[in-house]
Structure formats: structure tokens, C-alpha cells
Write a structure and sequence with these properties.
alpha+beta, CNF1/YfiH-like putative cysteine hydrolases, six-stranded mixed beta sheet, 7 helices, 14 strands
Length: 269
């Protein structure tokens, strides 16, 4: 994925990672820690309000992201590590949408930005160049096991007539299999949801170490199983937990003294 700086005001730049797989008509990006106003330990572009940063800082950071995105408005939901995908229509109140318990949004409302908040989970962006509809998904391990990828494809098909083979998918920076060690109960959940998880390199086991999970690999295979073409799936190799430059927020690395990044996509005008 390519890093680009977006000017927002008074010489301020907001760096965003972008995928060449998403068509240029869909403004989109994955934020990093850079470009905001939050002090340590949240420095600097913290876009989440979960773990102690001031409301004023978060509001300014969100204002900057909105300016960088080019969207007329940005909506989000109350994420619950599930599979529910909310369809957002013209005239929907962003505050009402924010109160909905879901882990995805989809829309074809021109100029609307759809966003998900992450700090190790996978931010997933989906675009359909044929219909102009798009979606943003939050995929933690529970949502991945439950099938949030399939839920996103289904929501676009049912809501806007999207065909899986037309969809373009980008998986943003997340915790990688290098760092996501898990217990036996998580391994069992993946094996139950995806028979052959070991053979498919979803579960990675090394003698003497805890088993690890590759969320990106599982999501890639789920999208392919849903009919998305392999060439239409872009996967970031960046690990939020051990990125050498410390560009990303990571709950696994920092605990509650961290912030949240955002993955967003804007419906084309």
C-alpha cells in the first residue's frame, strides 16, 4: 500500500495509506498515528474515545481526517466484534448511526464516508466500481470467526445488487501472525469455523511457542469463498503490534494507553 500526505489546513498534513486495488473514484485510506494533536501516550492522530484521550483532541483529529478524506460527512457504528452490517441511506442521522451496534457499514450515498476504528483488528474496505456502492468492516478475531467478510459481501449484494466478482477489497494494517499469539480456545474457534485452518496457514504453530493466528489469511480466504476474485484482494503486510517505525496504534503492544486508527471509504460523487 502507498503512503500519501493529505493537506487539511494551515500546512497540516495527514498521512494515509491507500490501496491501488480500490478504484480512484473511491476516496479511501488507513490512518496512522501521525497528523494529529493528541499528546503522549495517544500521540498524535488518535481517532478513538475509548481509553482516556480528551474529547477536544479526538474531535480535532476527526475534523482533520474528515478534511483529508474529502467526504461531506463521516459515519461510524458502535463496534461489537460481530457481523451485523448497517446500511446507511440519505438523511440518516450520524448520531443515530453511531449508536447502532454493528461491525460494518455500507452505502451508495454520494459523498458519505464510512469508517471503522481499530487498534490491532483488521480494517476492511470494499468498493464496487460497477454500482458505486461500498462498505467498511471491522474484523477482530471474533468477527472473523463469525463471518464478517461474508456478511459484508452479502449486505452489498442484497442492498445494491453488487456482484462478488466486481468487488475490490483492501485489508489494512492489523496485528500480524508474528505477534498474534492465542490460547487453545481461539484456535478451536478458528478450526470449527474453517476446517483445515492449520493447512491453510490460518493457525500457525511452532514447537515451543503459543499458536498464532493470521487474521489476514483467514479473511482473504473467506472473501475468495464468497466469490471475490483473488486479484481483487489487497492485503497490507504491516503489523500494528511490531511495526518498526511505531506508525500504528496497538492494544496488544500498549494496552489501554493507546489510541485508535481508522479505515474509511467514501462513496463517489
Amino acid at each position: 500500500m502507498e503512503a500519501r500526505d493529505f493537506p487539511v489546513a494551515d500546512g497540516v498534513l495527514v498521512p494515509l495509506l491507500q490501496s491501488a486495488t480500490i478504484p480512484a473514484s473511491f476516496r479511501h485510506g488507513f490512518s496512522t498515528r501521525a497528523g494529529g494533536v493528541s499528546p503522549a501516550p495517544y500521540h498524535s492522530l488518535n481517532l478513538g474515545s475509548k481509553w482516556g484521550d480528551s474529547a477536544e483532541n479526538v474531535a480535532e483529529n476527526r475534523r482533520r481526517l474528515l478534511a483529508a478524506s474529502g467526504a461531506r460527512a463521516m459515519v461510524r457504528v458502535s463496534q461489537k466484534h460481530g457481523t451485523h452490517v448497517v446500511r446507511v441511506a440519505a438523511g440518516d442521522d450520524p448520531e443515530t448511526v453511531k449508536g447502532m451496534e454493528a461491525d460494518g457499514l455500507c452505502s451508495n450515498q454520494a459523498g458519505l464516508g464510512l469508517s471503522v476504528h481499530v487498534a490491532d483488528c483488521v480494517p476492511v474496505l470494499i468498493a464496487d466500481p460497477r454500482t458505486g456502492a461500498c462498505a467498511a468492516l471491522h474484523a477482530g478475531w471474533r468477527g472473523t470467526v463469525a463471518g464478517v467478510a461474508l456478511a459484508g459481501v452479502k449486505a452489498l449484494a442484497e442492498g445494491f445488487g453488487c456482484r462478488p466478482e466486481d468487488l475490490r477489497v483492501a485489508l489494512g494494517p492489523c496485528i500480524g501472525p508474528c505477534c498474534f499469539d492465542v490460547g487453545a480456545e481461539v484456535v478451536a474457534a478458528f478450526e470449527a469455523a474453517w476446517p483445515g485452518a492449520h493447512a491453510a496457514d490460518i493457525v500457525v504453530e511452532t514447537p515451543g511457542f503459543q499458536p498464532r493466528i493470521d487474521l489476514r489469511q483467514c479473511l482473504r480466504l473467506q472473501f475468495q469463498a464468497a466469490g471475490v476474485l483473488p486479484a481483487h484482494i489487497d492485503v497490507s503486510a504491516d503489523c500494528t503490534s511490531c511495526d518498526p517505525a511505531g506508525r500504528f496504534y496497538s492494544f496488544r503492544h500498549s494496552g489501554r494507553l493507546t489510541g485508535q486508527s481508522v479505515g474509511f471509504i467514501v462513496v463517489p460523487d
